[in-house]
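Support reply, case 0932

Customer input (verbatim):
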Amino acid sequence: MFSTSGIRKLAPSEEFFAETQTFTSVTVFLEGALDVDAMAMAFDVLLEVYPVYAGHLEQGTDGRYEIVTDDLLHGGMWMVDGDGERAPHMRLDQNVSLLNLLLRTSDGRAELTLFVHHSLADGHHIAGLFFELFSRYTELIATGDVGPIQVQQAPEPVETVLAQRGVQKLRRSGLDRFIPAMFAYELPPRRSSGSEQPTEPVEVPASRGRLTRDETTALVRFGRKNRLFVNSLVSAAILLAEWRLRQTPHIPIPYLCPVNLRGLLEPPVTPTGCTLALGVACYLAEITSDTTLTGLAHDIADTLQTDLSEGVIQQSMLHFSLQYEEIPGLPDAVIFTNIGNVSAVPTPPGLEVVDYRSEFHRASAAVVDVYTCGIAAGQLRVEHHVQNAASERSIESILSLLRAATLEYQH
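Our regenerated output:
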């Protein structure tokens, strides 16, 4: 028998991802010499700094989930040599652990995948964990020591973070922007995964594409010229691509974009101080054949800024929680999230992050339809996670729109 200790119940913003056993993973592709023992030690230190991730989830008699720790040690880093599949013991199981690390090595290259339970971490939180992991590894390679260890408390849910900062629930949720499109159209049949409910987390299929380094630089220059961030330009390209592929030009497209609140709150929240420190930006894209990439991007940016200035986005999660199911009576929504610059993690000399891949793993038959983007090695990556054969077409269309708009800025 091992003694157990309950840390806290999951908040409404977190509960859904326990019900669907959802893990998010980010894989970084590395070139250069990697010390396997040092990485395993750095991972052990990560679990010492954040002991909550060595715990697991348990469902109580009331149906709610709780974060629980026990006296069992975490199993440590998983390893695979070459192109072999994951071994049978490499299972994502929220009843066992909430964080795992997989290292795959082959011919001077390495793939490092961090799996984190989605109830306890959004993409920015995962980035914070990755930064801590590589900081410890880099320090160990440079000095032979991992540095001081300061144990961190379990991250708070966004509900607690907002309450501590006096952010209160307003009358508007942001979803009110979708009211003109609700039950207003004869909609095509809903997309379905066509699969039975899995009993354990399985990977959501994804299509991926990228711009070259020169094309990415040109996109940044184009954005500066037009006073637009890359995020708004990619959002506009995604919506234009979806509008073309759907072949329902008279139906607007609801757009949802998780917004990182950490730097928008006062005092700011640390990267790992909150599980899902997110607000949700809502936008209804009414696209016509005359809509341009820059015009749509400016409207998205202006709408986002208005809702931020009025505090709508900051309190949006007090109205609803993130989930996969579509809203009844509404056209299929586009969800888009920006991972950021993956290459920003510290690495020792001779080791470089050259690519990345993100994945969702969940035990649910509900359709996931999420776009993500990020930058690695100076190249913009776009991903489409969905059970849909047309996802490759959407990626090709998005990248074509971005290339065409920035052609004059390319060398």
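We compared this against your earlier run and they match. Two observations from our side: The first strand starts at residue 4 and ends at 9. The domain at 167-409 is CATH 3.30.559.30 (Chloramphenicol Acetyltransferase). Please reopen the case if you see a mismatch on your end.
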